[in-house]
Structures are given as C-alpha cells and as structure tokens.
Write a structure and sequence with these properties.
This protein has 477 residues and is α/β, with parallel strands linked by helices. It contains 14 helices and 14 strands. Bound molecules: 2-acetamido-2-deoxy-beta-D-glucopyranose (8 copies). Keywords: Disulfide bond, Glycosidase, Hydrolase, Signal.
Length: 477
C-alpha cells in the first residue's frame, strides 16, 4: 500500500505551484563526467520550488524528465550549430521539429518558453566565429516556430555575454556595446522587439570583481558598508546595479530602452579563484535575492526573469577563462547544498538530491612506500585529463602540499574512469584505498555511479510499471 500511495504522491506532484516572487530560475548545464541523472535533477528543481530552468542544448533525456512538470524551460542551441542554422531553413525546421514541436504534442508537454540561439556567441574569445550567422539563425528558427504554429508561445532569444557591453570610465550613464558588436546588436534588438522577445544577458559581479581592481569585494557582495560609486546625480551601492544600468544605457544608446531584460546568468563560484568560496557565494546570493525582492535600488527597469548560474558543478567545463568555471553550482556535482540559501521564501536551506547512487567508497592516492622522485610528472599527466582545478592556486585544495596534491590528481582521474584499476596505476605509484583522504575543506570526491542511472525507460513509465507489478503482487486488490 505504501508504494501505491507513493506513486500517487509522485503523480500529484506534477502539478507544481509557482511560489517564487518574481521569476528566479537556474541554469542546468551537463558538461560533467558523471552528470546527475535528469530525473534526480528534476526532483531537485521541484523540491526547491524552482519554476524555471535554462538548458544549453535539447537533450531528449533531460526534456523527457521535464515533461509534465510545469517548469518553464529554455532549450539551447549549441554554438557549433549556428552556422548551419543560418545557411538553411530546412535545418532550422528539423531542429524545431525534433527539439521543440515534439514536446508540445500529447499529454505530457514540456513547457518550453524560449529557444536560446547559441551560448554567448558574441563572447570576445570567439572573435567572429559565430557573430555573422547568429541573426540569420535566429530568424530561421523564428520562421520554423511560426510554421509549427508555436510562434507566439515560444520566443527566440540570443544570450549575450558580460563582455558585450561596457563603460570605460566605470560610469553607467556612458555604457555602450562593444564597438565590434554595435551593428549586430542593432540587428538583434530589432529582431527581438519585432517579436516581443526579451534581451538575454549575463550580469557578473564576480567577473567585475575578478577583473577590475576598482571594484571591491564588499561592493560586489551587496554590503551596506561598501563605498558608493558616483555617476552624475546617481550613487551606486553595489556592483549589480552598476552593471545593470551600464547595460540599460547601452540599450538606450542604440534606441532600445524599452526591451525587456532577462538576466540569463548570474552567480558566484566556490572554488578556483581568490574569494571564490562557499561563504562568499552565500553572501552574494542572499544579497542578490534580497535585492531582487526589494525591486528598488537604482535599477532603471528590473529584469523580468533571472537565472542563477548554476544549479550544479560541472567537471568538464572549459577552463580557458578560469579554474572557477567548474564551480558555479549552488549544489555540488552530486546535488548537495554548498551553503545556506534558498529559492523559496518558506525555507532557509536548499533541499539536497535524494538517494544518490555513488561508486563504492574507494580512492586512489600515491603509494608512499615507493620512490616518488618522478611522481609529479605523473600528476601532470593525470591533470591533463582529470579535474585539478581545486589544487591550483586559489583552489580549496591548494594548501594540501606535496604529495597530497598528487594524490588529489590521481584520485580525480580514478573517479572519472569509474574506478578502473588501470586508471590508478601511474607506473606502480598509485594505490587504491578505502580510507577517505579528504582533509578540512579539501574534499576528495567519490564519483556518481552512472552505470544504470541513464534508464532507457522514462520515469513516467517506470512509475506505472511499478504500480502494475504491485497490483499483480496483491491478489486481493
Ligand atoms: C546566412 O545564410 C544566408 C542564406 O543561406 C546566406 O545568404 C548568408 O550569406 C549567410 N550569412 C553569412 C554571414 O554567411
Ligand atoms: C536536436 O537537439 C539535439 C541536442 O542539442 C541535437 O543533437 C540534434 O541534432 C537536434 N536535432 C536536429 C534535427 O537538429
Ligand atoms: C573607481 O571607484 C571609485 C569609487 O570607489 C570611483 O569614484 C571612481 O570613479 C572609479 N574609477 C573608475 C575608473 O572606475
Ligand atoms: C553605434 O550605433 C549607434 C546608433 O546607430 C551610434 O550612434 C553609435 O555611434 C555607434 N557606436 C559605435 C561605437 O559605433
Ligand atoms: C579575499 O581573497 C583575498 C586573497 O586571497 C584574501 O586576503 C581575503 O581575506 C579574502 N576576503 C574574504 C572576505 O574572503
Ligand atoms: C576552450 O575555449 C577556448 C576559447 O574559446 C578554445 O580556444 C578552446 O579550444 C576550448 N577548449 C576545449 C577543450 O574545447
Ligand atoms: C626518474 O626519471 C629519470 C629521468 O627520466 C630516470 O633516470 C630515473 O630512473 C627515474 N626514477 C625513478 C625512481 O623512476
Ligand atoms: C604539488 O605541490 C608542489 C609543492 O607545493 C608543487 O611543486 C607541485 O607543482 C604541485 N603539483 C600539482 C600537480 O599541482
């Protein structure tokens, strides 16, 4: 009977109520060696009252897990597809057919609200690799949606990076778009306003602090005591308002002061850079939530939606812009809260992922009984593949010294390779142990067991299958 009630409860939960004041969602990226199973992530979204989620692609396993949930979804088109989507309407039509229309048919719909063309395709590090094709791709996707009669339900957006706008003087009133983007931005904004779509943009007090000596930590963290930045008659008390108004001026300078703004990425990482720590991230996010609720400050126009970067840590993210890139999660890779924070007024804590399946409690460390004179070369080999961001300068494990840091590298590779014995060999210098080598804040993780989590049967069917089995097992029912 217990199981039956449980199934009913799970089914009832599908009609989620939206309680968040203003719309605050999260980015859900999957660039991890062992991603948390989609069904567990959707449980996390529901149990934490998160009503909106932004994806970076359109993985069918993820979308199936979201079906029937009533969570508002942004599906993403990866940058590498932009060029072909500009070149061909047919390609755009089949993308929309496969990755949007399909989820609008039948009972268990996915509430897709936006299609994001590219992930920050105008980022300066990409040069002109994507820029010339973005608007054409967006137009083709828009036409394909219209053809599928979804033109009014699903909006096409282009997430713009934090480096797309600036103000050399640091004064928001002089904000403008990057000179090489001026023309593209005019085209983009004309497209967006024509279709009543919002402007998606990253705001990053963390990057401002990290890159700009003139921005203090207190100013970044919404501290009342921070020294204000003055601009004409306005006085800015925090880095968020300063950046946001710089953007608003940039939009006004090309004649689009009325477009709706969505902050599509904002967060604070917890590792891989100075002041990227859990306590700092906690202060930042609590400050941000309080600030968004007040709807005051010096904001010219508040954002209509805000997406926290990010839900989970991802150990395969590109770290060319910094080691912190793999540590944006408000939850660890395995769905456990890093600090006291909540999306929801009624609670102070995030709800963790439940019943997570881990590999057995085993780690790979250096064998101290061997001659370790050449072990550092082995560590470098491991780090070329594994995630060593925590042992590098600014990382939470940067203080553990040698050969603890070598053990960290060995373990990271061993975990990424699902505990295969060969991956802990290192020319005989590795040793498998059941004693947790973690110390203080430096966590030697055990990876997730993903061998049977990517179930072929959707969860929805699993529930009914369980019910069927249950009914069959109770003859009197
Ligand atoms: C985008 O596609 C159109 C239509 O195929 C093509 O004419 C145009 O040259 C493409 N844009 C660029 C920058 O290649
Ligand atoms: C649908 O999206 C997935 C994942 O982003 C992609 O691999 C696939 O090619 C897309 N389908 C089409 C027809 O473009
Ligand atoms: C640096 O910050 C101070 C306020 O702390 C401000 O008065 C000054 O104009 C800023 N300078 C630049 C170049 O941003
Ligand atoms: C950008 O375009 C606007 C509007 O056409 C123009 O006034 C401004 O001077 C341009 N800025 C740059 C840097 O080209
Ligand atoms: C920020 O980082 C610097 C450099 O590591 C450190 O000296 C300072 O104490 C940190 N501040 C906070 C509040 O964590
Ligand atoms: C990481 O990003 C940089 C800059 O965009 C790029 O040059 C590099 O190829 C990327 N690395 C990987 C492994 O994708
Ligand atoms: C360390 O490397 C050097 C140079 O390759 C080699 O001569 C030496 O035998 C190695 N020592 C051990 C203990 O493997
Ligand atoms: C480990 O720490 C030692 C001493 O601090 C350092 O020389 C070495 O480069 C570190 N190794 C790695 C893989 O970070």
């Amino acid at each position: 009977m217990g199981l039956f009630l449980l199934i009913l409860a799970v089914t009832a939960e599908l009609s989620l109520t939206v309680t968040t004041a203003g719309a605050v969602g999260v980015n859900w990226g999957t660039e991890a060696s062992h991603p948390l199973p989609p069904s567990k992530v959707v449980e996390l979204l529901k149990s934490n009252g998160i009503a909106k989620v932004k994806l970076f692609d359109a993985d069918p396993k993820v979308l199936r897990a979201l079906s029937g949930s009533n969570i508002g979804v942004t599906v993403g088109i990866p940058n590498y597809m932009i060029k072909s989507l500009n070149a061909s309407r047919k390609v755009a039509e089949s993308w929309v057919h496969d990755n949007v229309t399909r989820y609008f048919n039948g009972g268990n719909r996915v509430r897709i609200e936006y299609v994001a063309v590219g992930d920050e395709p105008f980022h300066q590090s990409y040069g002109n690799q994507y820029r010339p094709f973005v608007i054409g791709a967006a137009m083709n996707i828009q036409n394909a949606l219209a053809k599928a009669s979804l033109g009014s339900e699903v909006k096409v957006v282009v997430p713009s990076s934090f480096d797309s706008f600036l103000s050399e003087s640091g004064r928001p009133s002089l904000g403008h778009f990057r000179a090489d983007l001026n023309k593209t931005m005019i085209e983009l904004l004309s497209f967006l306003t024509k279709h009543h779509s919002p402007f998606f943009v990253t705001i990053s007090p963390f990057l401002s602090f990290h890159q700009n000596k003139n921005i203090s930590l207190d100013f970044s963290l919404f501290k009342e005591t921070a020294q204000a930045h003055k601009d004409r008659r306005k006085s800015y008390r925090n880095s968020y308002d300063l950046s946001y108004d710089t953007l608003a001026s940039a939009l006004a300078s090309i004649g689009f002061s009325d477009v709706d703004i969505v902050v599509s990425k904002i967060g604070w990482p917890t590792d891989g850079a100075a002041n990227a720590t859990s306590p700092t991230a906690e202060v930042f996010l609590k400050g941000l939530m309080a600030h968004l609720e007040k709807k005051t400050g010096s904001l010219m126009r508040p954002p209509i939606e805000t997406y926290i970067e990010s839900l989970l840590d991802e150990d395969h993210r590109n770290i060319s812009s910094g080691n912190f890139e793999r540590h944006w999660g408000v939850l660890t890779f395995d769905g456990q809260a890093k600090y006291g924070f909540s999306f929801n007024h009624n609670s102070k804590k995030l709800v963790n992922a439940q019943n997570v399946q881990y590999l057995p409690p085993k780690w790979c460390v250096v064998n101290n009984n061997k001659d370790l004179s050449n072990v550092s070369a082995r560590a470098l080999e491991a780090c070329a593949v594994a995630d060593c961001t925590s042992i590098l300068p600014g990382g939470t494990c940067s203080g553990i010294g040698w050969p603890g840091n070598v053990s960290y590298a060995f373990n990271s590779l061993y975990q990424q390779n699902d505990h295969s014995a060969e991956s802990c060999d290192f020319g005989g210098l590795g040793l498998i142990t059941t004693v947790d080598p973690s110390e203080d804040n430096c966590r030697f993780s055990v990876q997730l067991d993903t061998s049977h989590s990517s179930s072929q049967i959707p969860d929805f069917f699993q529930s009914w299958l369980l019910l069927l089995l249950f009914l069959l097992s109770v003859p009197s029912f």
